[in-house]
Amino acid sequence: MGKKKLKAEAVPSAETLDIGIPADKREAITHGLSRVLADTYTLYLKTHNYHWNVTGPQFNTLHAMFMAQYSEMWMAVDEIAERIRALGAFAPGSYSAFARLATVREAEGVPSAEAMVAELARDQATVVRTAREVLELAEEAHDQPTADLLTQRIQVHEKTAWMLRAMLA
Question: Given CA atoms 126, 132, 133, 138 in this order, what sign does their dihedral have?
């Protein structure tokens, strides 16, 4: 028996994708999710950097805390990027794209442990603000999967910001 040739089917483009969300709303949501992705990835990288470079009396505590935080964000960036793809857009994936899209800024130098904690707490709040903006777009478009993803991200980042702020009290 000969092998059957698979017939190539047309893959719908982002413009023709019909999942019940108009193309213009999907475009706004995916742009917003790209910003959340860029903020999350930039914060992931900064947190990993601080994990490597933290020093001082709280080294063990902060080293372990930062590892838990960057590990969580590493998993999150995949979920965010895959949601962008499910909505018919390509996810950004380069440092230059992230630099253009992110509100969270890269670390400059190696600050003190206390400055690291304060900066990460502020950056966690920045990701929350970005996610809340996009959550509004998702809710308006009745995009429940994106709204659910963003609600979960907001919860994680708010809790992490609180824990970091508590270390500064």
Answer: positive
Task: In whole angstroms, give the CA distance from residue 11 to residue 21.
Answer: 18
What single-letter DSSP state applies at residue 69? H
Q: For residue 10, is it within any domain? A: no
Residue 29 lies in a domain: yes
CATH number at residue 124: 1.20.1260.10
Q: What is the pLDDT of residues 40-97, one digit of tens each?
A: 999 999 999 999 999 999 999 999 999 999 999 999 999 999 999 999 999 999 999 9
Q: pLDDT tens digit string along 137-146?
A: 999 999 999 9
Model confidence pLDDT, tens digit, residues 1-51: 555 554 444 444 555 778 888 999 999 999 999 999 999 999 999 999 999
59 close to 26: Cβ distance less than 8 angstroms = no
Range of the domain at 151: 23-168
CA distance 89 to 2: 37
The verdict on residue 4 lying in a domain is: no
Q: Is the dihedral of CA 141, 142, 143, 147 positive or negative?
A: positive
Task: Write down the H helix ranges in the chain.
Answer: 23-53, 59-86, 95-101, 113-140, 144-168
